[in-house]
Amino acid sequence: MGSQEVTDWQGKHVTVAGLGVSGIPAAKVLRGLGAIVTVVNDGDDERARAQAAELEALGVTVRLGDGATLPEGTELIVTAPGWQPDKPLFTAAAAAGVPVWGDVELAWRLRELDGRKPAPWLAVTGTNGKTTTVQMLASILKAAGLRTAAVGNIGVSLLDAVLGEEEYDVLAVELSSYQLHWAPSLRAHSGAVLNLAPDHLDWHGSMEAYAADKGRIYEGNRVACVYNVADKATEDLVRAADVEEGCRAVGFTLGAPGPSQLGVVDGILVDRAFVENRQKNAQELAEVSDVTPPAPHNIANALAAAALARAFGVPPRAVRDGLRDFTPDAHRIAHVADVDEVAYIDDSKATNTHAAEASLAAYESIVWIAGGLAKGATFDELVARSAKRLRGVVLIGADRALIHEALTRHAPEVPVVDLGRTDTGAMLAAVQEARRLAEPGDTVLLAPACASMDMFANYNKRGDAFAEAVRELGA
What are the CA-CA distances from residue 290 to residues 111, 136, 139, 217, 287 (Å)? Predict the structure, then answer.
């Protein structure tokens, strides 16, 4: 099913793989276009049955409890991004010559439906910082007076943005490696890879495959491929990309920028990429103090957002105003309270080692609360790089022993409290132990470097438990 057939969906047999935040909108849109839609789903619980009933009322066929069998007559599969490429459904599709698209690919193909004038996409991916950067970018674009929205992996359906009644001048799009894997024809106006560190390797199969999927964001870029000067792997992906003639590589750095880079000089974010005579000139965009919070990795996020906005022609004042207007989501290096001259910081969103390392780098003397589900991660590098900042460590969660072993190897002098608990009440005990270890001027930092599902429904609930425990300290 090539792009020339996208305008004629009437009678096309399309299988949607997976219910949920992407599958249900995809099924509804395709049914509305006249396609014959079958949804397959691995699970068969009460929620899935309720979702199935809603879709069946629209004329969609739903098969619960069997996500492995390719329905007869299928001409296209539209998959939820989390479905792994080695699933039997996709093996059967490959054998039958049936293409597989993700919801992002579907949205991209439907951009011009009914003669619409599609909004360009400014796209962001990376192991960490995607959501914050996309929200910063949307704030900057709005400050420039542009009609925009932060969409994609951020939880706002791209299909809704593309096909809804609201018209946009430009979209700030967060894309995961899963979404990029299933979006072969996506061509963004400009794209950014913020950083690369091992993550989701069980899904992709290797670091090389993971990086290659991230790198798809650069394919066909028209104006700028934004990369991280401090992370050579991101620049390598730019070099490997097939871009449109005239598209430029634009770096961001926490140091002084060279030509075709954005960076920091004396506390000021400056642009040497989108200026006249960039060999000699630089444009002031904002001050470091305009970024909330001004932690190093968040400054990097701001520079990446600024680079994409500048690639779209946004004036310097809008970068400053947009960054000033931006407030980060909860559980991202959020200051909870000061108790007895100790700051308590919730970075529950730091669910992998790369994110935790960035968080730890933002503070000088830390009592670190860590642990959870490791997802196959190792902790030696993280602990070795952060050891000098650690006043003490409190460990919780299923895979805490892995962190404890790394601490024994690389920070043997740092006191460690291993709570040996995975119940939700462990967070209060962890905060109490952290208070005992902390001294005035220290930071107690929840940056678990692990997923939360061993103890909590999600990282939000984990952060909420931390904040509640801190409030009890101060009561």
Answer: 35, 12, 13, 28, 5
First to last CA, the chain: 63
Q: What is the pLDDT of residues 176-210, one digit of tens each?
A: 999 999 999 999 999 999 999 866 666 667 888 88
Specify whether the CB–CB gap between 445 and 360 falls below 8 A: yes
Residue 23 CB partners (closer than 8 Å, separation 6+): 16, 17, 39, 41, 78, 80, 103
- The top-scoring range by mean pLDDT among 46-50, 273-277, 443-447 is 443-447
User: Cα 225 vs. chain centroid, distance in angstroms?
Assistant: 18
3-state secondary structure of 221: coil
* Phi and psi based region of residue 330 (left: phi greater than 0; alpha: psi -120 to 50; beta: remaining): beta
Provide the CA 114 distance to its chain's centre, in angstroms: 31
pLDDT in tens, 4-18: 345 689 999 999 999
- Strand 342-346 relative to strand 334-339: parallel, antiparallel, unpaired? antiparallel
Give yes or no for a cis peptide into 293 (omega within 30° of 0): yes
